[in-house]
Amino acid sequence: MIDVHTHYVPRGWPDLGPDAPWLRLDSETDATIMLRDREFRRIGVQCWDVETRLADMDTDGVDVQVVSPTPVFFSYEHDPGSAAKIARVMNDLALEICGPAAGRLLPMCQVPLQDPDAACAELSRCVDAGHVGVEIGNHVDDRDLDDAGVVTFLQHAAALGAPVFVHPWDMPNSPRLDRWMARWLTGMPAETHLSLLAMTLGGVFDRIGPELRICFAHGGGSFAFWVGRMDNAWRQRHDVIGTSEHPPSHYLGRFYVDSVVFDERALRLLVDTVGADRVVVGSDYPYPLGERPAGGLVRRAGFLDDAARAAILSSNAHHFLGIGE
């Protein structure tokens, strides 16, 4: 089984400037990601300790994890030079974390996406260094994935054969969203839905061929549930929704989504909508809103036959990552 959606945080890093995240070590096994003087998230040893991570993988029956940055480190809000420095440091530390378990822990890099040229250069450097692909956020300020600069980067990733994993970040904030973790429970799915809307209605899949291998976190948000509504809007108001050559459903075979949706009914809708060949296991390990044991929903889903289950647990991820089976 391959888990394509996990995260890491190093146990420490050099001073990257006053606006960069820093780590407060609270004990040998616990730490807190800090943004200036504000606590962002408490984390545990699973984020950086290889032996702990491998033990959890063995418990869950996971053979391989794809290990991606924690989105708070994207640093898209910083100037491009600072973001490039942060990306380089974090990417090199990711190689150090994954190195002792080469073959079981596959690192994905981050890039300064606000500067397409710097982002392309860092991706090239990281692919040469051993990263299997890149994780990006779903937007840069108010620029979505159909922004010309982001499309340039995606074209570069496609040319390199580097898979792209899209993760929501920087969700909207308001008093209504500050309760019940609503930014994570409603904002994250909405942000991912918006990413796919930009890719489809924004015509990105028309401009980039099928050589782009791209996967969206958290089951693609609410996209699968509302694809009919989007198709209807494309047909009924094509005067407004006219960028893409085809309605959103036309592009369903062009992207992957992960399986971390927690409910068999949601997984069935996902498989029925995007196809059993386009769903990969994701757990969001090691964070508390993730799935443990990883892949448990796929393993117990009664509607999946053996071939579909095997595809979701393993072979689809091989295709997405571009690695041999």
Q: Which characteristics define this entry?
A:
3-stranded antiparallel β-sheet; 10 helices; 8-stranded parallel β-sheet; TIM Barrel; 325 residues; alpha/beta; 11 strands
What is shown here, in short?
This protein is of the alpha/beta class and 325 residues long. The chain has helices at 50-60, 80-98, 116-129, 148-160, 182-201, 204-207, 223-236, 264-274, 296-300, 306-321; strands at residues 2-8, 22-25, 30-35, 38-44, 64-69, 105-109, 133-137, 164-167, 214-216, 256-258, 279-280.
Structural commentary:
With 325 residues, this protein is α/β, with parallel strands linked by helices. The chain has one domain: TIM Barrel. Helix content is 39%, strand content 16%. It has ten helices and eleven strands. The protein has helices at 50-60, 80-98, 116-129, 148-160, 182-201, 204-207, 223-236, 264-274, 296-300, 306-321; strands at residues 2-8, 22-25, 30-35, 38-44, 64-69, 105-109, 133-137, 164-167, 214-216, 256-258, 279-280. An eight-stranded parallel β-sheet has the order 1-5-6-7-8-9-10-11. Strands 2-3-4 form a three-stranded antiparallel β-sheet, with no helix packed on it. α3 (116-129) packs parallel to α4 (148-160). It is globular, with a radius of gyration of 19 Å. The N and C termini lie close together (11 Å).
